Amino acid sequence: MILIKIYQNLFYRVYSFHVWMNKGKHGPMDSAYLLVGVFFMFNFLTFLLVLETLTELKIFKFFIEYKLTFAISFLVMVEILGYFFVRRNKAYLKIIKEFKKESVAERKKYSTLAIIYFVATFLFVILSTMVWGLTNKT
User: Fold this and answer.
1) Over the stretch 68-93, which tens digit does the pLDDT of each residue have?
2) Number of other CB atoms surrounding residue 33 within 10 Å
3) CB of 29 within 8 A of CB of 15?
4) For residues 67 and 47, what is the distance between their CA atoms, to the nearest angstrom?
């Protein structure tokens, strides 16, 4: 349940930022769930990089050999996540309505946490890739 709440919170932050930046044009709902899905996938890949670095598993050799299969699987997973968490039964309307009721203090707190999440994910991807690259000469 906590993962769903985190997903919804991140979805709303990206959605509201997109609406603010583009005046609601160019599909803010689609952009929001795709971006959140991409960052969740970055977290998964970072976990796999750390796991491979700490163990003898050769996980990324598979990804390197099957790039197209991995890319298609990734897109399908993002679409499935988006469907179940956002599109199904127009759940995005409920998410938006729920988060619009936030107080200013809550909005500030959750927006700060979302920014920290996005920055930390980006930094962890870069750092884990660097460490993996230094420890694996594939």
Assistant:
1) 777 778 778 877 877 887 878 888 88
2) 24
3) yes
4) 18
